[in-house]
Write a structure and sequence with these properties.
By secondary structure, the chain is an alpha/beta fold. It has helices at residues 2-32, 34-53, 72-83, 96-104, 118-123, 139-163, 184-206, 208-215, 218-223, 228-256, 266-290, 294-302, 305-311, 323-330, 333-347, 355-380; strands at 61-67, 87-93, 110-114, 128-135, 170-177. 68% of the residues lie in helices and 9% in strands.
Length: 381
């Protein structure tokens, strides 16, 4: 009986010193591994700030007005549209084709056509109808814009009818372009392709060089007469082929399983995907050269995932973000690839309409490939 009591006391007395020893060891490990500490502290803060600052209320939607009436009443209607804070009138024209082109190229999300008989119909107490073209490739923006237009029309009718007993003086004929059913899959999946390919490319490439270093084969590779550019291309080329194959598989699933139509050119889509993957793989290789361990490389690459999901326009409208977050979003390759994917898949947009986003992706690819080659050159010297 005494032996059992003494053994229990002995084990109980040893718990506290063991706890302190292991606790101190783990604290020291966390202090040394600052990457883990940084991610642990910053990830919740970043999520709180992003969710707090991002406003899902639709406002400042780029809008084109086709004013074929050029009257005082049409200018009053434009003033009321501006007053809603939903519409940011970028252009006033008389050509309806210019409005549709602006929507296809994503320069505008809404186009409002005021007919040439708008003033005459209003003056004679007849109903004047305006045509509202809305880009349905972004379901959040299209729903907000439609609600705002209907609000302006209802307010105008209430004001006039309260003064004069007559039929409704104004009506709107909304047309949702490119995604008239408002299907969530049509909006989410094309953008998801860009996000998934980013995760795959960066994470795979980020472990390529550091893996050689951990296995001890990096020194053998460095003593061989390998050109830095050749080394980099040899490292990323297999992942580029893998990424293109993965893209084809995802697009097939998108088309045949989720019934999302692909309106644009697949040749153009894959050409841009090559540029996008080249930029991401070069960035992953740059991370791999700087990282000391494969785990550190993975953690660093994952730091790009969260901002890309929230700031690229994939989930939340970019116009609903503060200016600083919008600026950060514009330097993320995923922001431009999401816009390109939705433009090609839903709007049948070509290189001319997507020139800004294509140019940004090409610039990212050139800069990141140059930075990666320069970094690889340093370790090969």
């Amino acid at each position: 009986m005494r032996r059992e009591d003494s053994s229990v006391a002995s084990s109980a007395g040893g718990v506290w010193p063991s706890f302190l020893a292991v606790f101190g060891k783990e604290v020291l490990h966390i202090r040394r591994n600052r990457g883990v500490l940084f991610i642990t502290v910053m990830m919740p803060i970043m999520q709180m700030l992003l969710f707090g600052f991002i406003d899902q209320t639709v406002h400042d939607v780029p809008t084109v007005i086709v004013d074929q009436d050029r009257s005082e009443q049409s200018r009053e209607l434009m003033d009321k549209l501006r007053a809603t804070d939903t519409f940011d009138i970028k252009e006033v024209t008389t050509n309806p084709q210019e409005a549709r082109t602006a929507i296809v190229s994503a320069r505008a999300g809404v186009a409002i056509v005021i007919p040439p008989d708008y003033h005459d119909l209003r003056s004679h107490g007849q109903t004047a109808k305006i045509l509202v073209l809305i880009d349905g490739s972004d379901s959040t923006v299209s729903a907000g814009a439609l609600a705002a237009v209907n609000g302006v029309v209802a307010d105008e009718n209430i004001q006039v009818m309260s003064q004069q007993a007559r039929a409704m003086p104004l009506s709107a004929q909304p047309i949702i372009l490119f995604n008239p059913e408002g299907r969530t899959a049509n909006f989410i999946i094309p953008g998801l392709v860009a996000i998934l390919m980013q995760m795959i490319a960066v994470i795979l490439a980020s472990g390529s060089i550091v893996r050689e270093r951990e296995k001890g084969t990096m020194e053998q590779l460095m003593v061989t007469p390998v050109d830095p550019l050749g080394l980099m291309l040899g490292k990323v080329a297999p992942y580029l082929v893998l990424g293109l194959g993965e893209t084809a598989l995802i697009l097939a699933i998108m088309r045949w399983c989720f019934d999302v139509p692909i309106e644009g050119s697949l040749v153009f889509l894959f050409a841009i995907m090559v540029v996008y993957l080249a930029a991401l793989l070069a960035f992953g290789l740059f991370i791999s050269v700087r990282a000391k361990t494969e785990m550190e490389a993975m953690q660093t690459s994952q730091m790009l995932v969260l901002p890309s999901i929230f700031l690229s326009g994939y989930i939340f409208p970019i116009k609903g973000m503060p200016f600083v977050l919008q600026a950060i979003g514009q330097i993320l390759p995923a922001t431009h690839m999401v816009a390109v994917m939705r433009g090609i898949v839903l709007r049948d947009a070509g290189p001319g309409e997507l020139a800004v986003h294509v140019g940004a992706l090409v610039a990212f690819a050139v800069i990141l490939v140059w930075a990666s080659v320069k970094r690889v050159s340093k370790i090969s010297m």
